Amino acid sequence: MPKITHILFDCDNTLVLSEELAFEACADLSNEILAKYNIDQRYTGPELLSEFVGQNFRGMVVSLQKKFNFSIPHDEMENYVSMEEDKVIQKLERDAKPCVNCTPELEKLYDGKKYGLAVVSSSALRRVVASIKKVGQDKFFPKDHIFSAATSLEKPTTKPDPAIYLHACKVIGKQPGECVAVEDSKSGTLSAIRAGIPVIGYVGSYAGSEKQNEMTETLKELGVKIVMQDWKEFPDCLKEVEAI
């Protein structure tokens, strides 16, 4: 295996506890869309999170259209995406918190200068920047090494499409095998694996040991060999990846 030189972090519920806040903020908008198109289904924030974790809002709405067989015109979709982004950012700037024990590990990596650090997210760039800035993690990442599947690509997409990881590798000038990704969701993990990047799974943001154990098994079934429940485990997990 090539020498690991860069660590690529997912943002939502990997660096920052943002997924629950984000899905709370977009539940009303999602239900507004469903009502407009005469779909009876309604979602709470936790229900959206459970069904669409790891997807950005655009990807979630695309999934809703497929699930309920309706179609939103392009201009209307862009308007909804913009509205959702504003609502989520407002909530994150007020309430976002870092994932438990994450920031001290980032501090060690940053001070050690052994690895390049980047953020690779499905979420809109403004939302990612707002999240890491709110919790004081923005100082660890060069501005041009924060990547968004919704914003950084010529054609917006969402994980599990590997496009955003491949784009990030191209920009930072590294081969996928020289990087390791840290991911908490099935879609994010698939995105990295499909790009040829080894993954350290993180399940510490899931509520309760039962759900954490369930997600550990899910990630391992996808091919993840190393899963951590607490960020304090990260140094040892990284050593394990480098030894493979």
Report on the structure:
By secondary structure, this protein is α/β, with parallel strands linked by helices. The chain is 51% helix and 12% strand. The protein contains ten helices and eight strands. It has helices at 19-36, 45-52, 57-68, 74-95, 102-112, 125-134, 163-172, 186-194, 208-221, 234-243; strands at residues 6-9, 16-17, 97-98, 116-121, 146-148, 179-183, 199-202, 226-228. It has a six-stranded parallel sheet, sandwiched between helices. A two-stranded antiparallel sheet has the order 2-3. Helix 1 packs across helix 2. The longest helix is centred in the middle third of the chain and has 22 residues, at 74-95. The chain is globular and about 55 Å long.
Major sheet = 6 strands, parallel
Overall pLDDT: 95
| Total of helices | 10
Radius of gyration: 17 Å
Pattern of helices and strands: EEHHHHEHEHEHEHEHEH
What proportion strand? 5-15%
Straight-line distance between termini: 7 Å
SS-based class = alpha/beta
Question: What is the topology, as strand order, of the major beta sheet?
Answer: 5-4-1-6-7-8
Helix content: 40-55%
- The stretches of 5 or more residues where confidence is low (pLDDT under 50) are none
Described by the principal axes of the CA atoms, the overall outline is: globular
Number of strands: 8
